[in-house]
What we know:
Distance between the termini: 40 Å
Structural class: alpha/beta
Low-confidence stretches: 1-18, 399-408
Largest sheet: 6 strands, mixed
Strand content: 25-35%
CATH topology of the largest domain: FAD/NAD(P)-binding domain
Oligomer: single chain
Radius of gyration: 22 Å
Number of helices: 12
Mean pLDDT: 91
Number of domains: 2
CATH architecture of the largest domain: 3-Layer(bba) Sandwich
CATH superfamily of the largest domain: FAD/NAD(P)-binding domain
Shape: globular
Amino acid sequence: MALGSRSVGAVQSSAPALTILAQNRADLPAVEGLRAVVVGGGWGGLTIAKYLKIHSPEMDVVLVERRSIFMSCPISNLWLADLVDYSFLTHSFLDAARNNNYTFFNATVLDVDRDKRRVHTEKGYIDYDYLVLSPGIDYDYGAIGVHDPAEQIALMSHFPAAFKPGSEHITLKRKVENFTGGLFLLTVPSGNYRCLPAPYERACMIASVLKRKKIKGKVILLDHNHDIKIKGEGFHAAFEELYKDYIEYYPSITIVGVDVENKTVIDEFDDYRFDDAAIYPRIRGSKLIETLGLVNDTSPQKEARINQYRNNLIDDERVYVIGDSRSTGYSKSGSTAQAEARYVARVIAARIKGEEIEWQSPYTSCYSMVGAEPMEAIYFGSEYLPPQADITAMSMERTISSWTDTGAAFAWRDRNMLRSAEMGEEMIGWAITHYKEMFE
């Protein structure tokens, strides 16, 4: 039996009711040809579901997602500062499926049997010919010294990171709206975390609320990194020119504990007291990847073991992993996930025909709003070197530092644009364009 193909009996001992459901076929239309199952309805999953149908229209595509409503993590920082409405972030999975001719199946994945090519959910099983896993992230609270499950739940409940869309964002929005003064603490984790510039953008957006409301308070930003990893010049300029009295930035902070009751973050040398917070720990690949036995043993963030050029599992060309849980070092951003999804859809379509395509770098197109009145944004865009590239032998316009602290990938041909109102307008257009990519 292949790794990641636990028997249904393994589930039976702990959840017999779910096992009974999983032994029945899911209520989906029968298919005569090939079927692809996509697990996870984020930016990557929605995009690959669409493009699998575009490149292989004869194939049946089923998107399995446990949420019933899509909420975007990208652009959510703007909502904190009332620059967009909540409705701008939320969309219908049903609309996406109908408009792009695939099936949305609202269910939770329990197991995958790769021998039988079968995905088990609490609503029955689905047989597949190709499987794409795009399950997102989980948090690694142990990396910031919080190991006890009860303490982890308390920290997540009281001071959520808000990098999983949904309730965490709603809680953070309420915190910002109700903040009356003092210190609002944010953290930047180690590793290749979801959306590298987002914590700095969030600091700007929360500071803009304090500034607009004339609240006597500050945003304290504790950064594990030695300096801002991306768009540093633009963010430092915003901190100094727009929020000098509202943002305090502390680099090289290694958090070793959090005292939830006393509202204190503890690093190697100091304690940081706060009045409210959103504490972002190191991230890891979705625990589904670990549950299925697909973790790359060399990945410090428990991401999947995949072919770096094709995204399929090392030992299985019928199963692919994209987005936050893949072990390539590309940015874990929405636009990168979309670009990667378009490419992997082409890989699968070609392999159906017995062909291979050339590797193609994803493109990261990233705006960050730093000003609110008026809206002003900064921009960074970049492609990537091949995963095993020898950078000493290549001619590049510019190579920046590695995305990850393990040096897994390097960006090149980067384009930086500093703060302007034009960039602010472009950012809204960027969001609309990317939403259309998934839902229309």
